[in-house]
């Protein structure tokens, strides 16, 4: 389903199973609304039992940890190390999942008396995963006898072999993709281990760590569950099955957390603990923990969650927040710089590839994601590392293109790469840089048509404004936590009237709407962050369709349904009102636009200001290939409305800009009346002849006729042969007294009347009435 001005291709979910749907909708065992039951059936819930399970906010699904391959061997080795007070190293990762995984393992081992140390690698100096040199340093420093990795390790062949050579055992706990071979570690705990029988393969690194410590303790430690919930949501793994239990349990525990750093963070961000959701982790907690590791040493993030000292927590929170502010600033600067570079191209390439030595590698993935969202193109953003003469980059892709497969095709130019269909990391030596760019741009040439199609957005179901109630939203939230494999439902409201529209924010780049539908007094609030540009041209009274997620807006003790806008669109073209006494400068810089004029001299004059843009008279539009233009600019009203109607209906224009400038307003002058024709005829008859220009002003005053109208009347008299004008001298035709002319049937009168009607509609009617005239049935 495609709407004009919409950024996405709207795809409504089909009904999952009609028989199952009827069973759900007709069941009498629950108190859910029929609207919610309809949503559940659409999302594939096929029985009352499944409905109760999916809406249970206190699930207890927790699989036997001994189903993980080598769990018993792992626990025996850890217990031996504890008993013999062997120095143990927990080696984590620099993201939120790695930080929480490390802390889960460290706190548990410390609590039961282990001689334990931890280390979080620095992204910039240690890189990802086991680092042989760093391991060797830590082994020497602490006399380590056992290394336990968390959230990494399945690709650490070299480091593990080096430890084996010096008698240090390595236990790997990880959840990342397995290769065909595994390191020669003492044991490997992995939910996807080919020799294991674990029923749920989608645990996060923190989830795997939680399984290990739960087995070690013989019970699930509550203080570790809140950490596992943070790691699970932040790492964007599936929020189904066991992960749903971990996250919902963790959210409950976070509300009453004893972690002073976590309490301070939530308090500082003014989080309402009664409304804590997975989005709180995804948009507030996770990004701050990730920010520290993106720009260097992630240890302050772990220490913030670990400390029991309030003053230390305050200092650590300031460090974490400062790193997050720095991360935002750097990302915005990179994105802005690349956007400026894009503005220098004739067209946006099918894949965006940009590099700079001053762009930190840790934020490149975020910048690439923003570019994908803005341009609907895959993007790879690189940092050029001068000392290594290498380009280190992060890629993100649109849903329709598997970036990993595309990079496989470029393998001959890559020093390293890894990832999945929508994201990958890669390194390229400088000597291969230009060849790589040329090759991958060529490889993407065949994607032009595909990339010009908008990305899909999946809509769960259309709803009326009346159905969007607080009770319904509360029902919807029972299906949470929302995230990977359980996306938050998207709803569509079709043909809503904008009662009010406001542009908000410091830069006015957000839009807030009050929407209603015909025959309903209910009003829905909708807000679109960063949607101001898309909402250009909308006004009170406009009819639009919108897609978004439902939320509850709490303000001053009041609760109202609110739609968080993901997209909006209109049927037909979007008409934008630029009518004014002066030409708006923005009309002169519109891409892929066709400019329409009625008069050749005006078209010629404006062509010089439009810098080679497409300029055409209405009467010549049929000679132009209109398909090459997306936007239509009505610079002057047509002589006949049908001329513009034919052009509008030739194709689906993205936008129609209504300038409709008039130098001589026939609408303001009015249609000549019979009495005015008689008065003018008598005046000319009495004078017989005169200099036209000299007498013109006298006639307008004497007969009180508008100059534009009078000019038109003279043209009509010329056509009727009542007068002749030669060398500026007007003479009455003495034979005219014998002529009986029906003036309203003259071509000049009809043209004047048509121009009057055209101006009356295009210059003086509201925009929705104009659009309805040209596009309505």
UniProtKB/TrEMBL annotation:
Q: Where is the DDH domain?
A: 88-232
Q: Which residues form the DHHA1 domain?
A: 350-443
Which domain of life does the protein's organism represent?
Bacteria
- What range(s) does the Single-stranded-DNA-specific exonuclease RecJ C-terminal domain occupy? 574-774
Q: Which UniProt keywords apply?
A: Exonuclease, Hydrolase, Nuclease
Positions of the RecJ OB domain? 459-567
- What are the protein's GO molecular function terms? 5'-3' exonuclease activity; nucleic acid binding
- Which Pfam family, an example, fits this chain? DHHA1
Q: Which protein is depicted? A: Single-stranded-DNA-specific exonuclease RecJ
Q: Which InterPro entries match?
A: DDH_dom, DHH_sf, DHHA1_dom, RecJ, RecJ_C, RecJ_OB, SSDNA_exonuclease_RecJ
User: A GO biological process this protein is involved in?
Assistant: DNA recombination
**What PANTHER family does the annotation carry?**
SINGLE-STRANDED-DNA-SPECIFIC EXONUCLEASE RECJ
What protein family is recorded?
Belongs to the RecJ family.
């Amino acid at each position: 389903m495609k709407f004009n001005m919409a950024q996405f291709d709207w795809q409504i979910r089909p009904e999952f199973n009609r028989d199952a749907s009827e069973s759900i909708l007709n069941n009498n065992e629950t108190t859910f609304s029929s609207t919610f039951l309809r949503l559940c059936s659409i999302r594939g819930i096929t029985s009352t039992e499944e409905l109760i399970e999916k809406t249970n906010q206190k699930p207890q699904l927790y699989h036997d940890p001994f189903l993980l391959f080598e769990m018993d061997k792992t626990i025996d080795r850890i217990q031996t190390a504890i008993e013999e007070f062997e120095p143990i190293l927990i080696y984590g990762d620099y993201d939120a999942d790695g930080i929480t995984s490390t802390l889960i393992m460290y706190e548990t081992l410390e609590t039961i008396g282990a001689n334990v140390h931890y280390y979080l690698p620095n992204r910039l100096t240690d890189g990802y995963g086991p680092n042989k040199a760093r391991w060797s340093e830590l082994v020497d420093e602490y006399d380590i006898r056992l290394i336990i990795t968390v959230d990494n390790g399945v690709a650490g062949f070299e480091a593990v072999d080096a430890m084996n050579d010096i008698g240090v055992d390595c236990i790997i706990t990880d959840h990342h993709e397995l290769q065909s071979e595994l390191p020669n570690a003492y044991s490997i705990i992995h939910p996807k281990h080919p020799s294991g029988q674990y029923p749920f393969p989608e645990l996060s690194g923190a989830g795997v760590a939680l399984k290990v410590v739960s087995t070690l303790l013989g019970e699930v430690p509550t203080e570790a569950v809140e950490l596992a919930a943070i790691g699970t949501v932040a790492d964007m793994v599936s929020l189904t099955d066991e992960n749903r239990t971990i996250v919902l349990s963790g959210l409950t525990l976070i509300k009453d957390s004893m972690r002073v750093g976590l309490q301070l963070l939530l308090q500082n961000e003014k989080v309402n603990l009664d409304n804590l959701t997975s989005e709180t982790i995804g948009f507030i907690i996770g990004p701050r923990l990730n920010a520290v590791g993106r720009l260097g040493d992630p240890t302050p993030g772990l220490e913030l969650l670990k400390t029991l000292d309030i003053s230390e927590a305050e200092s650590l929170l300031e460090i974490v927040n400062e790193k997050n502010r720095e991360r935002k600033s750097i990302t915005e600067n990179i994105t802005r710089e690349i956007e400026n570079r894009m503005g220098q191209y004739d067209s946006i390439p099918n894949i965006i590839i940009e590099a700079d030595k001053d762009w930190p590698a840790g934020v490149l993935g975020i910048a690439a994601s923003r570019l994908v969202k803005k341009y609907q193109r895959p993007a790879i953003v690189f940092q050029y590392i001068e000392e290594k003469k290498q380009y280190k980059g992060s890629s993100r892709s649109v849903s329709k293109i598997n970036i990993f497969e595309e990079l496989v095709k470029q393998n001959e130019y890559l020093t390293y790469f890894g990832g999945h269909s929508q994201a990958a990391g890669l390194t390229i030596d400088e000597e291969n840089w230009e060849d790589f760019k040329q090759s991958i741009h060529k490889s993407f040439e065949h994607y032009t048509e595909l990339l010009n199609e908008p990305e899909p957005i999946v809509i769960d179901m259309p709803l009326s404004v009346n159905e969007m109630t607080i009770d319904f939203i509360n029902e919807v939230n029972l299906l949470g936590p929302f995230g990977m494999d359980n996306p938050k439902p998207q709803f569509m409201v079709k043909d809503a009237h904008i009662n009010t529209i406001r542009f908000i924010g410091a830069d006015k780049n957000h839009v807030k709407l009050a929407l209603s539908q015909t025959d309903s007094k209910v009003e829905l609030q909708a807000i679109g962050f960063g949607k101001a540009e898309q909402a250009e041209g909308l006004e009170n009274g406009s009819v639009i369709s919108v897609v978004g997620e439902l939320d509850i807006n709490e303000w001053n003790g009041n609760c109202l349904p609110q739609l968080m806008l993901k997209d909006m669109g209109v049927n037909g073209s979007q008409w934008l009102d630029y009518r004014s006494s002066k030409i708006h400068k923005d009309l002169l810089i519109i891409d892929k636009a066709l400019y329409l004029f009625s008069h050749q001299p005006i078209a010629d004059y404006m062509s010089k200001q439009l810098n080679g843009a497409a300029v055409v008279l209405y009467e010549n539009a049929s000679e132009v290939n209109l398909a090459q233009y997306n936007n239509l600019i009505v610079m002057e009203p047509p002589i006949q409305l049908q001329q513009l109607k034919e052009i509008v209906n030739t194709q689906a224009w993205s936008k129609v800009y209504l300038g409709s400038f008039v130098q001589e307003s026939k609408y303001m002058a009015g249609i000549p009346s019979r009495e005015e024709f008689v008065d003018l005829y008598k005046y000319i008859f009495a004078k017989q002849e005169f200099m036209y220009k000299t007498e013109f002003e006298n006639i307008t005053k004497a007969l009180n006729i508008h100059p534009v109208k009078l000019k038109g009347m003279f043209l009509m008299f010329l056509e009727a042969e009542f007068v002749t004008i030669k060398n500026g001298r007007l003479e009455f035709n003495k034979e005219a007294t014998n002529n009986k002319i029906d003036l309203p049937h003259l071509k000049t009168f009809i043209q004047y009347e048509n121009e009057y009607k055209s101006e009356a509609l295009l210059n003086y009617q509201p925009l929705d009435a104009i659009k309805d005239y040209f596009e309505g049935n």
